[in-house]
Amino acid sequence: MAVFGIDLGTTYSCIARVDETGRPVVLRNLDGSDTMPSAVYFESPTEVVVGAAAKDTAVLEPDLVVELIKREMGRHLTLTMHGRPYTPEEISAFLLRKLAADAEATTGEPVTDVVITVPAYFGIAERDATRKAGQIAGLNVIDVLSEPIAAAISYGVLAPDTDRTILVYDLGGGTFDTTMISMRDGDIQVVCTDGDHELGGVDWDERLAEYVVETFVEQHPDASHPLDDPATVQDIRSQVEEVKKRLSTTRQRTMRLVHDGRVCTVTITREQFEELTADLLDRTVDITRRALDVAAKRGVKDLDDVVLVGGSTKMPAVITRLRKELGIEPKLHDPDLAVAKGAALYAFEETYRRLLAKGDEGRRQAERLARQAGLSASDEEAIAKRQIRTVAARGFGVLCYSPERDTEHVVHLIHSNDPLPVDATRTFYTVYDDQGEVGVQVMEQAGSVESERPEDNTLIASGPVGIPPGKPAGWPIDVHFHLDSSGLLHVTATEQSDQRRLDLQIQVGGMSEDDVARSRSALSQVRVN
Ligand code: ADP
Ligand code: MG
Fold it and tell me: pTM of the entire structure?
């Protein structure tokens, strides 16, 4: 009975589990790599190709390859391939199926129970979409976990007895996130999170590509432009990423670009590369400073650890710069695998704790799990008592109309930093006699501070509650919010009258449970290679 942790990344994804010695290990995919490009190639109506082969097809078949789908999670949109519309949840489900299938092939064990990670800034629509992607892929999603928290778990900085403040600096392929986490009395709290979701390794690649193209054009002014040929663009794209990675460990690298019958050889040193990209690194430092300022304003001042996450933090310039800026030695160890490993540890521990809570049979299963992972009695004790308590990232409320002021405002039932899980109920009242119906509009705080102004909130769900005929103005409707420990919101609005009781389960996110079930069975007909 293995449980798995999945880092479903914007550009690369990764799957891990806890091994026989209790340590988290990343499972190589069938290409022999630890991470898989988050790319899906819709080869035919019944066949998709996921991973490196899909990424290699991107420039040549731009209309059939989907990359960066994580940016669309939680949005109501579809991408049409071979005449069929696909939601972001469905496209992500293909990534998950490939990760799971490869992991099954290498471990020989079925992949069912998983924890999937999401960025700290993801709101509930995005988290809900991620969970549904897992369900469409046929997985049982134990939990959706914040990436910086997963990273912190895998770096082992969450020792339960010490209070610490951690900065997680995550520079990935397409996004940059910086998150302050505080650990107090066993509670893990995201203090603040900031970032630039259009800044990542691809921007470093882009600078190298520009340099190579310029050099080519200088050497061969009479040849056609390299960017006019998709095959050349594809070649440049994969070469520059490779060169960039090599420059993290070697001092210089040579690239050969063949285009229009001409050959251009470009040698680039690490120093040159760092100069070409210095302003990009500056941007991450500015954003990190901004996050530190916000944390300081909230009373969190002393930084104990800096944890580097994301493949792009392997570039030596990152650690050198942060060491200088922050005066702390950053922790750097498998940055592109840390999130998946942390998710695996969390999945394992959470499963163990849930089993323990399930009576004698559960206890026996928990013991078996512990034995499989080679845990000592004291390990078991520590895990049993560890609590990973998170807090609400944002506030949630209901849009209200006040007839006296003739304005709308948001009444928040749940506030940011409320410890999870949290339940809140409030009674609202109809405005008119015989109103017939009330529209319940569920709002999520949009900015970093709670505000009752509707424009400072995002509408995340809405639905009508019927009111029996003949009821006077001021008729009560109870609204109940339940925000679970993974940050998913469940809303119920109830009208209580003598004759009947109406319950309304408000659907958050784009796909309903029925949609999910339908798409799970429809997509199971599609082969994933
Ligand atoms: P994601 O952003 O999808 O979570 P990762 O954290 O795996 O993805 O980061 C992927 C990025 O890391 C890519 O831009 C990749 O080129 C870059 N990367 C991976 N290894 C290295 C390396 N050794 N040196 C520099 N960049 C690297
Ligand atoms: Mg990542």
Answer: 0.89
